[in-house]
Structure formats: structure tokens, C-alpha cells
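Regression test case RT-17, inverse folding.

Input:
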């Protein structure tokens, strides 16, 4: 920030973004903001523009309703995904996080494969992932559901809470505090906003009931937004994600550490654990020591990573003209 401050710019942090209009929190409070034309022009892609949680340099404008964002400071950590829908490119979900709280609801069956995918995305940006299992008060078979989630999470901490009864919420305080930022991500209806409201001690975010007939929640959070706690700590709430596609080939091996350990005994060092002979991973599946569905999902994510890498190479060749 020092060279930017020398130009008369001030530090601020992005608390909300919607259609390229921002709210930022600076020394004089929260203000509306917009990116300068130069910043937009020089941004190599969408991910280079400001995102919620970013530290930015703003040009103060005491008299006007908006300030200008002149620069985005380097991100320390982040969560990103392939942009949803037809758009191609990286979408920054949240930036400069210490912890990513991957949240699922216990009012529906645990989806181990979804937990694995979210953890791959969470790990890739450098923040520490934690799995939150909300709605413990309505779980039909709590012990089984928690066991399934722990199997999928591997060495990642799994916290069991209830936003309704507030049971277990104290454990989340471990990850909060002055100078720390957490982000809640997960599917719609998991109760992320309800947990955030409890942690903020106020109904800052709208919440909605889950429909009984299909156990799907309404998207009560429609924008990613950052909130500062009076008790210390910063919380970023995100809408439920219908699509969660990987963007960069990284993170899969970390989530599947058990498979990586088995791979040390494969006959070939470059074994893909698919059709190769002498594969220790496939042998573990056949012997019942490794869940077949977990192995199948590993192969799917591995293929997705390879496709991402292939597209990146093609894009680099097109840009380089080679």
C-alpha cells in the first residue's frame, strides 16, 4: 500500500459487489465505490477486478456519493471457481480469508462427494478449510451422518452445530477474532446466513425456511457480502452455489490424502489409478479398504483437473500466437 499511499490513495476493503458497483469499508466508514476506467482497462480478466474481501486503494472523494477504486492489492488467499453459466473464466468468490467454513445441512442426507468437491475448491486458494454440519437438532441419524462427513473430509476439522439452538457455535469462535476473516460457502439451504446472524448477535442477513417437499432452501443471500463483528473478526457470507466447477488444477491430492498414500505402492510412478496393472489404489478398492464411490469421484476430479490444464495450455498458445 505504501507506494499507493504516496499517490494520495487510501486503503479500504470491499464489503459487497453487485454489477461492478461496490461497497468498501475505509477509515471513514462504508462508502459506495466504482473501479476506475484504467483499472477496468488494465484488468487481464474478470478475476483481476475487485472482489468481496479484497483490499483496495481508493481515491477519496469527501464531497461525492462514491469513491473510486484505483488498484486491487495482491490477494493473500482466496476461493474461486469456474464462473457459473455460459461465462468462461475464473470467478473470485471471496478474498483474503484465513478460514473457509464449508457448510452443509443435516436436514438432508450427507453428500460425501459434494464435501470432497467443496474442499478441493477451498484448499486451492490457500485458506484453511473447516466443514460445518448445521441443523444437528433435526438430524435423523446424527452419528451416521457425522461419520460419513468425517470420512469425506479426511484430516479437515468437522464441527457439528445448530443455528436454531446455538449448540456447537462456540467452536466456530476458535476461527474468529480480531484480524481474522472467515467465509461461509456451501449449498443453498444449509443455514449459512442463520449461523452468521448468531455469530453477529443480530439479524443482519435475511433467512428463509427450507421447503419441506424437496428439502431445498431458498437463496436468501443473493450477494456475497462482508460483515465486521463488534466482538472481533470479519465474516463473508455467500449465496448457495448451484454450480461448483474447478478453475485451476490444484487441491485434489490434498483432499484425497488416503489415495495419495496408497499410490506409493503402485507399480508405476505415473499410475493414474484407473486401468493400469499393479495399481495399489484399485487393489484397496477391491479389498474393501477404500470406498469405491470415493475412488470414482477422485478419478472424475482428476480428469476435470487435466481438462482445465489442457484448456489453459490452449489459451496460452492462442495469446502467444503459437
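Golden output:
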Amino acid at each position: 500500500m505504501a507506494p499507493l499511499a504516496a499517490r494520495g490513495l487510501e486503503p479500504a476493503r470491499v464489503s459487497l459487489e453487485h454489477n461492478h458497483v461496490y461497497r468498501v469499508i475505509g477509515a471513514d466508514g462504508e462508502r459506495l465505490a466504482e473501479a476506475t476506467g484504467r483499472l477496468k482497462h488494465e484488468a487481464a480478466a474478470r478475476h483481476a477486478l475487485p472482489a468481496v474481501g479484497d483490499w483496495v486503494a481508493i481515491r477519496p472523494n469527501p464531497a461525492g456519493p462514491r469513491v473510486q477504486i484505483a488498484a486491487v492489492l495482491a490477494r493473500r488467499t482466496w476461493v474461486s471457481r469456474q464462473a457459473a453459466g455460459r461465462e468462461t473464466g475464473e470467478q473470485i468468490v471471496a478474498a483474503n480469508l484465513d478460514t473457509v467454513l464449508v457448510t452443509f445441512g443435516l436436514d438432508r442426507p450427507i453428500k460425501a462427494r459434494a464435501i470432497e468437491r467443496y474442499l478441493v475448491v477451498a484448499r486451492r486458494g490457500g485458506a484453511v478449510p473447516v466443514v460445518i454440519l448445521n441443523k444437528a437438532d433435526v438430524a435423523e441419524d446424527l452419528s451416521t451422518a457425522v461419520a460419513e462427513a468425517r470420512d469425506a473430509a479426511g484430516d479437515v476439522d468437522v464441527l457439528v452445530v445448530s443455528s436454531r439452538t446455538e449448540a456447537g457455535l462456540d467452536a466456530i469462535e476458535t476461527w474468529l477474532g480480531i484480524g481474522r476473516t472467515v467465509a461461509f460457502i456451501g449449498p443453498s439451504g444449509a443455514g449459512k446466513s442463520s449461523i452468521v446472524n448468531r455469530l453477529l448477535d443480530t439479524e443482519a442477513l435475511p433467512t428463509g425456511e427450507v421447503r419441506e417437499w424437496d428439502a431445498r432452501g431458498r437463496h436468501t443471500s443473493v450477494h456475497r457480502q462482508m460483515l465486521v463483528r463488534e466482538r472481533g473478526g470479519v465474516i463473508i457470507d455467500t449465496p448457495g452455489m448451484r454450480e461448483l466447477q474447478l478453475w485451476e488444477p490444484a487441491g485434489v491430492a490434498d483432499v484425497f490424502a488416503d489415495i495419495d498414500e496408497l499410490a506409493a505402492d503402485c507399480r508405476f510412478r505415473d499410475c493414474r489409478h484407473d486401468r493400469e496393472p499393479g495399481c495399489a489404489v484399485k487393489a484397496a478398492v477391491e479389498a474393501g479398504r477404500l470406498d469405491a464411490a470415493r475412488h470414482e469421484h477422485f478419478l472424475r476430479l482428476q480428469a476435470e483437473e487435466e481438462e482445465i490444464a489442457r484448456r489453459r495450455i490452449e489459451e496460452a498458445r492462442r495469446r502467444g500466437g503459437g
